[in-house]
Amino acid sequence: MERNLILAFESSCDETSVAVVEDGKTILSNIVATQIKSHQRFGGVVPEVASRHHIEQITACIDLALSEAQVTYDDLSAVAVTYGPGLVGALLIGVTAAKTVAYAHQLPLIPVNHMAGHIYAARYVAPIEFPALALLVSGGHTELVYLAEPGQFEIIGETRDDAAGEAYDKIGRVLGINYPAGKEVDRLAHLGKDNFHFPRAMDKDDSFDFSFSGLKSAFINTVHHADQIGETLNREDLAASFQQAVVDVLADKTVRALKAFPVKQLILAGGVAANQGLRDRLTTELTQFPDVTFLKAPIKLCGDNAAMIGAAGYVSYQLNQFGDAGLNADPSLEF
Ligand code: KG4
Ligand code: ZN
């Protein structure tokens, strides 16, 4: 049987990434050029800086992805690309590069939703079994997504304000941690105790929605108040208390959703899915659901990368969902 080889592009935020993926389940190469250092001194991603870096990096990323995979353009079956959601200028670089390669080499073009890509990072662990529920937690999104069958995504709950990763980054800044702060806050949290008991917003209501801005404000007010009276708070305990509040809400809502939507699989994906506290807590919660398997995106594929776009693109390929030269970036794309 002929190999299906997809050249995949991801450039929605601050990683320029190109991958070659075989049959939607094997990574032949996954080049990720991160720009984090350039954005750190601004405390977050600067869209203009991101676009410039993507332009500078993308051609080298394509060359490296092909050579590392030991394939040429002639071996490819299709080109997949993130076309939203994300920063418009950043997305446009990937979309333009993908359209150019598709046109020059007469290959089908597959538009991929970045969030579908995050979910499909889990495909590198095991096949997705439907129906499935995904807890999607990233720097820009916090969503519970119901997947009835391949190619179908229905948001059943989402954040009403800050995304979980965004809250991590903002409270991290108050602790003097560089952007993106999630990984370091996670590390500190394991060294401390939940002594501050921050609020768990919307934890007990009936919706599957989330809210993290109240928690973020409570955290920042606590630290500022201590500063004003010359008191120094324990950083590990602050981190542990913040993380416990986030994990409690994410886990409680996910359990409630699993009760309301019987599924075969729970998928954990997105940058915040790398969080050890969250992975451990959901593993424990899942013992209540012996018929549900827990598919965690591999930690190294939780952040933005093109391999996940190749896996999601393969599903679209099989469903004959192709784009054309008119494909444009859609910064606020939804499922
Ligand atoms: O999915 P992603 O790479 O980019 C977006 O599409 O947003 O997610 C990045 C987010 C950042 O906010 C970062 O702080 C957070 O993921 N993050 C974590 C951890 N590792 C990364 N948050 C909590 N715990 C972690 N271990
Ligand atoms: Zn992402």
TrEMBL record:
Subcellular location per the Swiss-Prot or TrEMBL entry: Cytoplasm
Q: Which SUPFAM superfamilies match?
A: Actin-like ATPase domain
| Entry keyword annotation includes Acyltransferase | yes
Any GO CC annotation of this UniProt entry: cytoplasm
- Domain (Gcp-like) spans 26-310
Where along this sequence does the record place binding of Fe cation? H114, H118, D304
Q: Which GO terms describe its biological process?
A: tRNA threonylcarbamoyladenosine modification
Pfam families, per this entry?
Answer: TsaD
**Any one Gene Ontology molecular-function term assigned to this protein's record:** iron ion binding
CDD domains per the UniProt record, alphabetical:
ASKHA_NBD_TsaD_bac
Cofactor descriptive note:
Binds 1 Fe(2+) ion per subunit.
Q: Which residues are substrate-binding?
A: L136, V137, S138, G139, G140, D169, G182, D186, N275
**Free-text function comment from the UniProt entry:** Required for the formation of a threonylcarbamoyl group on adenosine at position 37 (t(6)A37) in tRNAs that read codons beginning with adenine. Is involved in the transfer of the threonylcarbamoyl moiety of threonylcarbamoyl-AMP (TC-AMP) to the N6 group of A37, together with TsaE and TsaB. TsaD likely plays a direct catalytic role in this reaction.
Family according to the record? Belongs to the KAE1 / TsaD family.
Q: What is this protein called?
A: tRNA N6-adenosine threonylcarbamoyltransferase
